[in-house]
Amino acid sequence: MTVAIIDGIQVYSAVQKALERHGTSKDELIPLLVDVNSTLGYLPTEALGQISVATKIPISQIMSVASFYSMLSTKPRGKHVIKFCENAPCHIMGGRQVWEALLDSIGVTEGETSNDGKWTLATTSCIGACGVGPVMMVDDDLYGNLTPEQIPGILSQYA
Amino acid sequence: MSKIRSLVLVSSDPFSINRGAVEVFEAIKKEIAKYGLQDEIEVSMIRDTGRHDIAPLVIIYPEAVVYGPVLVEKVPFLVEEHLLKGRVAAGLQAPQRELSGRIAWISARKGTLPAEQRVVLKNVGIIDPIDIEDAITHDGYQALGKVLSEMTPRAVIDELKRAGLQGRGGAGFPTGLKWDFVSKSTGIPKYIICNADESEPGTFKDRVILEGDPHSIIEAMAIAGFAVGANHGYIYIRGEYKLAQERMSIAIEQARAYGFLGENIFGTGFNFDIVVHSGAGAYICGEETALIESIEGKRGEPRARPPYPTTHGLWGKPTLVNNVETLANVTPIIRNGADWYRRLGTPSSPGTKVYTILGNVNITGMIEVPMGITLREVITIYAGGMKHNGTFKLAQTGGSSGSIIPASLQDTPMDFESFRRAGVSLGSGALLICDENTCVVDLTRVLLNFFRRESCGKCTPCRIGTRKLYEILTHIADGVGTMQDIVDMERIFPPLEQLSNCGLGTTAGTPVAGMLNHFRAEVEAHIKLKICPSGICPMNGSLSKELEKTWISVQA
Amino acid sequence: MVQLTIDGQQLEVPEGITVLSAARRNGIKIPTLCAHRSLTPYGGCRLCVVEIEGMRNVQTSCTMPVSNGMVIHTNTEKIKESRKFVLSMLFSERNHFCMYCQVSGGECELQNAALDEGMDHWPLQPNWTNYAVDASHPYYVLDHNRCILCRRCVRACAEMTGNFTLATEERGASTMIIADYGVPLGESSCVSCGNCVQQCPTGALIDRQSAYRGLEPKADHIKSTCVGCSVGCAVDLIVHDNQLLRVEGDYDAPLNGGMMCELGRFKPIFDKQTRIRTPMIRKDGALKAATWDEAVAVIIENIKDKKVAALASTRLPAEALAIFKEFFADDLGGKMVTSIEENFPTQGLNEVRKSGLEGTLKDLRESDCVITIGADLFKSHMVAGFFVKRNLPNGTKLIVIDAGDNQMAERADIFVQPKQGSDYEFLQGLAGNISPEEVNKSTYVNIKSLEDSINLIKAAKKPVFVYGKGLSQQDGKVAEKSPLQALIGLAKSVNGKIFSPKGKANSLAAAAYKLDKPFDTHGFETVYLALGDDDPSNYLIQRLEKVPFLVVQASHDSKLMAKASVVLPVSTWVEQGGHYVNLDGLLQTTQPGTKAPEGVLSNEEALQIVAKASGFALKANWKSELKDYIRE
């Protein structure tokens, strides 16, 4: 799997910026992690270590929290992350067929990253857009009322 | 698609059938056809309703007039008077005192179908959510002003108690009582938390309120702070709701600038401020103690209770946790008074409820109606009927943890009390409506997959039980189920409810219970005949392979 | 007090306790897995459920506080079914073969609970996934296949030791126990205290030596005291067939509450040292085996009318130290009779006592601001260190003052390194007697660190100052500039306590017997070293290099043997009973767990034989001299 290599300077500056924004108190741990995760795409071990030093929260606790929440990832992810809603409302409204179309188009299964590092395919809990289900998110873009036929077109918009 | 203007229901309990209900049903259809009204008027049979001596009953919506007993020969008169001329057919109405409790609520509606009645959504879509002045011209911060200048904390709590507001997060706990508990707790400081971690699949009412009318929540939290003696508030908004977080942050900034938040609000010496706290993707954080853990920067594992958050909440201090929709009810109650509020909804469940309508219906979306509307009314009137003229097979109420209810229960009024009696959960107000192309095994499997992923893993029954149920359902959907699987499921879901630590575990078995209660034959068809009657389940072993794969990835 | 009824029994119990402890106090058995009396209630496993009248669902007794008038049932059909359900869930989660497992030795709590409920099969299909076993740690193995995710190890690591190495990863069915950010245990921040291993109710965390050795019901549990350091943890020696299987902390002991450290728990079990089994005499440059009589005869030859220095280890029991002192100092009139720790651990003790500020472990446990100077509790007195470490997440502040390296520094709020020999100035600065600028000039500590420290100390309600050898080493050079006096002044000014961890297990007893002066063997013809089972430091060996005649009374082979003229084999602490005075002045007892090898005597007996052969009958009353040093 090839994903964008993140160097130490990037990690350091992402953590420092997040610390400036949120401070180091314990109740800011999750906002901190969300922040760094969104800058870097995931939470590298070095970032967790630096947050641990700054907040004085043990590294095991930070790892424990980071792996608990589904919006945080402790593993590198692809350039684009597809989050497909797999909940009942979307499923009933035709989500299963759309999911199969996604699997076919990308060629990886759930939770995996494509060989070219372009896509990570993930499922997500409800994103609160059930009125227009089935829905998925590509990075921060939301797509609703999906049909299997639309999938290749949507994916082709991403470089 | 034509617009349905009236809905006619004929009772079909054995006694009514005996007294000619079927003939009445046919006669009504014939009469309607005679006037060419068949596209505008829907006629259905409903289960047991009134007392036997007034059977058969005919109930006509939207006016909600109850007729009975209706004899075949009276049908032409009834149809002509009510459905053609639009007036109540004289002499045919069922005497009020003869109505059983089960349908007395219908006549309590004073002859109208519950129209959309916007209380919490009053300003949503009308005001500019990032313009506080717009909010102020639409009654914003009026209630806070009233509370701070005219009321004592006790008076605020009493008003809420009198209004009979119940928590809209799912459990329906009396809100006034909760506020009372926190106000009587002795710890300092106290905290107000708005639970905006709306993660229940199929529910997006809180998002709409947060995005459309953030000031109503800020105002309600400040009122809560005043009432219970708290100066700090948190709004825990789930991480996926970026727009709601942005708008709420802007609204808080504006409220601070206008002096509605911060030090010495309205010059009364009352201080209150609010912090927006983002979630990071965990359904379980909607559980109030898990939410508190999450704000404290920990894993969202629910705590053991007692002690309850009202005495030992955030940082171990007394904490009031209220859902967004609950809080959105506070300012209208303060502005208009408890008496006004009690006039909405049913006596045991006053007020309105926001429902999200989803699934195989023509119109999906959100409505706010008084408590006590029926599922049939929702489907026929608000959802514009089933999609592709499908047949209503089942609904799931209240999100993933809600009950699977068959078509036969669609005339139960939806309020906390009636649903509790029917053993159904109202939950968050999500109504997932499914047609005959829905396989109940497939649906339940999807629901259990959700619980399996979202269980925090703290307590044994939930961590393992949800996974076990999911595995069993996968086997059944794969055509490799056995009758032992049904026995196993029946062995797992009752203790799951009894033994789990929090709401997630206790309700995770609800869909399974509903499936086995109402659709056992369909499940058995999967096992004994190796067919999926709806043609949805693959029945070819492909799912089990996927399942194995997920376990291998866990191992690595 | 609260009145309640459990299974028909009317009970009166204190307020604030849980239903589980109310039941246990009254001999009513409720099975548990995730609950442990040394940990905060968790409510995870759900095995301890009970029915409480008036409550809808069954309730976990481990988390439910008692209240007046409660009526509780612990043994209804519903509860029995619930227990079976919980166990059947656990059985189906990972690989548990309880009904067939023979290797548990009868001490697996999961197996015992299952047997108690009469479970003899898997009610639901088990999961056959294999999880990797983490065998990277030198002392123990983490086998996820046996894990029931009760988190007792995680909680022990956090709540008891404050180490926070263990945690849980992921959630739901994917939950796993991890170390740090998911590294193998052997490469983690683990301090090898083994408290997690002792907590584990199944075979998920087992130590490499004792697991699978001998059935628990057949093993003897002997209550004793760890002599690894002056804390003196209460321990259970678990012995089978004259072999020490395990050392476990005693959960009932108020002192350590079940905690131990690497030194006490694993060192005795994983000991690879060679035992000395027979007396030896150097002949023609090599040590040759001899009888006790022969060896003692050679010793007598070399102490009669000779200038004899005698050194004892402070790991020896009080009984041995007392007769050591009586024989060498009183009877032989030796001028150089002391301990190998010399005066470092207890120097200045009297001054602190006089000030009335002496603190105890209890003060340390309850302190909201710990200031260490020249002491490293994480290294030298680990359990005392745990008391500090575990309070840090709850807001206890830690200021570490040490010119050198210090393991506590990593967790400290402030770590300052005054230059060598400037502790006095720094302490005076903390007390506000010297201006920050002057302190900066003489100690090189920046002004901000000093001011931050002053503020933390001022804000504390119960500051405790911990001083160690690092402080005393420079003490006494210029009497009026004593750092200890400065420390006493500082502690007095902020209403704090002064705590000294002392040294080895019996430092305080050694001080009581006046075996606490510096030694110099120069000019002595014979040195008698009563080492016992202590490890000789390289520095000690070096200092004994030039001794003309060296008698070593020891349990283990060491580099000292190359120098020794006569060697006497003695027992270890596991084989020998005796008394110890811990750092708080608590008089403690060790009990023999195993028998010493044939021909090996206790330290006391060895000294008695030598004394007797010299013509002295020893009658030391070891207790009377300790009197001033023992606290009740």
Topology:
The complex is a heterotrimer of chains A (159), B (556) and C (632).
Chain A: H1 8-22, H2 29-40, H3 45-55, H4 59-68, E1 80-85, H5 88-106, E2 119-124, E3 136-138, E4 141-143, H6 151-156
Parallel strand pairs in A: 1-2
Antiparallel strand pairs in A: 1-3, 3-4
Chain B: E1 6-11, H1 14-18, H2 21-34, E2 41-46, E3 58-61, E4 65-67, H3 75-84, H4 101-107, H5 132-137, H6 142-150, H7 153-163, H8 175-184, E5 191-196, H9 205-212, H10 214-228, E6 232-237, H11 242-257, E7 262-265, E8 270-278, H12 288-295, E9 319-323, H13 324-336, H14 338-342, E10 352-359, E11 365-370, E12 373-374, H15 375-382, E13 392-397, E14 404-406, E15 413-414, H16 416-422, E16 430-435, H17 440-454, H18 460-477, H19 483-499, H20 503-508, H21 510-518, H22 520-529, H23 542-555
Parallel strand pairs in B: 1-2, 5-6, 5-9, 6-8, 10-16
Antiparallel strand pairs in B: 1-3, 3-4, 7-8, 10-11, 12-15, 13-14, 13-16
Helix pairs in contact in B: 2-3, 6-10, 6-13, 7-8, 7-10, 9-10, 9-11, 10-13, 17-18, 18-19, 19-21
Chain C: E1 2-6, E2 9-13, H1 19-25, E3 49-52, E4 59-60, E5 70-73, H2 77-93, H3 109-116, E6 133-134, E7 140-143, H4 152-160, E8 166-169, E9 176-179, H5 195-199, E10 205-207, E11 220-225, E12 234-240, E13 243-249, H6 262-265, E14 280-283, E15 286-289, H7 292-303, E16 308-312, H8 318-331, E17 336-339, H9 349-355, H10 361-366, E18 369-373, H11 377-380, H12 382-389, E19 397-401, E20 414-416, H13 423-430, H14 436-443, H15 447-459, E21 463-467, H16 469-472, H17 483-493, E22 497-499, H18 507-512, E23 526-532, H19 538-543, E24 549-554, E25 566-569, E26 578-581, E27 587-590, H20 603-613
Parallel strand pairs in C: 1-5, 16-17, 16-23, 18-19, 18-21, 19-20, 21-22, 23-24, 24-25
Antiparallel strand pairs in C: 1-2, 3-4, 3-5, 6-7, 7-10, 8-9, 11-12, 12-13, 14-15, 14-25, 26-27
Helix pairs in contact in C: 8-20, 13-14, 13-17
Fraction of residues in β-strands of chain B: 5-15%
Radius of gyration of chain C: 28 Å
- Low-pLDDT residue spans of chain C: none
Calculate the terminal CA-CA distance of chain B, rounded to whole Å: 54 Å
The chain pair forming the largest interface, with residue counts per chain, is: A-B, 40 and 54 residues
Number of strands of chain C: 27
**3D shape of chain B:** globular
Oligomeric grouping of the chains: heterotrimer
Query: Tally the helices of chain C: what do you get?
Result: 20
Strand order of the largest sheet of chain C: 15-14-25-24-23-16-17
By secondary-structure content and strand pairing, the structural class of chain B works out as alpha/beta
The residue fraction in helices of chain B comes out at 40-55%
Main sheet: strand order of chain B:
7-8-6-5-9
Q: Structural class of the secondary elements of chain C? A: alpha/beta
Helix content of chain C: 25-40%
Q: Count every helix of chain B, treating DSSP H or I runs of 4 or more residues as helices.
A: 23
Mean pLDDT of chain C: 92
Largest sheet of chain C: 7 strands, mixed
Any idea what the shape of chain C is?
globular
What is the terminal separation of chain C in angstroms? 29 Å
The description of the largest β-sheet of chain B is: 5 strands, mixed
